[in-house]
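Intended use. Records like the one below are meant for learning the mapping from a protein sequence to its folded structure. Do not use them to infer anything beyond what is encoded.
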Amino acid sequence: MFLPTPGDMSRRHFMRHMAAAAATIPTLDFISHVQAHAETARRNNKACILMWAGGGPPTIDIWDLKPNSKNGGEFKPIDTAAPGVQISEHMPKTAQVFDKLSLVRSMSTREADHNRGRYYMHTGFVPNPTVVHPTFGSVISHEIGSKRKDLEIPAFVSINAPSGSHGYMGTSNAPFVVGSDGRIRNADRGDLGDDRLGQRLNMLGVIEEGFIKSGRGELPQSHKDVYTKAVNLMTSEQMKAFKVDDEPQEIIDMYTGGANGAGGMMARGSAFGRSLLMARRLVETGVPFVEVGVNTGGWDLHNGVFDALKNTNLPPMDTAIAALVTDLTQRGMIDDVTLVWMGEFARTPRINQNVGRDHWAASWTNMIGGGGLKNGQAVGATNEDGTACITKTYQPGDIWATVAHAMGIPTSIVHTSKNGRPMKIANGGTPIAELIG
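Structure written out for the chain above:
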């Protein structure tokens, strides 16, 4: 892997330029992610938080239990705050706030390979060798982030998550990747005060102007723009949104269950809870799309699925999701922030010889909520043993079209790929009627 360079600038040319610039300002190797000097109309605007459970979570054991089937496994369903909707007994806190959430229980795709499924769920398009489609966070960054006049930090932030490519949305809409600690590599100024920083930037400006006047086309100007945006990010007050430790301890504890990061499950729970808290801080600042990896334990559960879910994966996820919904509700943000929980596929209804479940994409569940949607319901259904959908089926594009609708993005928009092909937003998916009214 290598850092993308502006436009078609050669890597050799770029590295020579970087070497010259390094004499005046510390090299910022996160520049490829700092393309979105986004603009915002006001805070508390529409946003989406995607919780990505990469690996293929067993939704039959979380969101769509089958207690009367031999495929049902060890867990019992419990009632939620949404009448008639039941979820796993190991998600009791989330159950209490389920009037703000909904389930889509008839997801069905043909992509049971990790990479292809990840691509499909993030973009709405199946992989195609002739075009790289943008992950939907990049689409939202392009459609909304570019219009937010006050946003100084990137419009698409990815916290411990794979995210995907910006595709034909351009590098200005690429995901800005950080860890759950909020630290951004090489963005710490250390002891470098404003005066010294200003001197170094002035020297850098001389070098940049020399390149711009050298008659090498638009690429030197593009490179200067990237550096300018990087400096704006590094010096912005909005960077405080990444500092979760600025929150009151009781809020941090609400998201993490009091986990102190000492190790094992507690450390993972703390990391996911802190990541969701950071996501709330970011959307409150004006970031329209945040993706958070649900890193509470591995989800590729071919072995020991029930022990893993009960003892490792679900407790911290339950705590953090319930805290996020509660926090957004108390702050009056729940109708502005759409929440999505998904993985690349699910796992087989049939339990294998290792007390695990294998890859399964034919019938499974996504969670969606907030965003002013008609929540507190389960849309679609699977049969009594979970092996097939018995209602209308939904594709990734339908999920993203629903998100677009909730965020005020017209689903009639058509983009153009780099090879000139028209590309419908969300691959022409349709907002789910039961959720939008």
